[in-house]
Amino acid sequence: MKRVHVSVNVDNLEEAVRYYAALFGAEPDVLKEDYARFRLDEAG
Fold first, then answer.
1. pLDDT for 10-30, tens place per residue?
2. From 17, 27, 34, 37, which residue has the greatest number of CB atoms within 10 Å?
3. What's the pLDDT score for residue 42?
4. What is the Cα–Cα distance from 34 to 10, expressed in whole angstroms?
């Protein structure tokens, strides 16, 4: 299985987590004070 890692620096982590959670339809699997990680399953 191939994986792609993307890192995005943001000014407001809370706002970014809300945005990406809505975009991906999933909550982050890791959420820390200064870091969030979304691990998404590959579809199809």
1. 999 999 999 999 999 999 999
2. 17
3. 66
4. 10
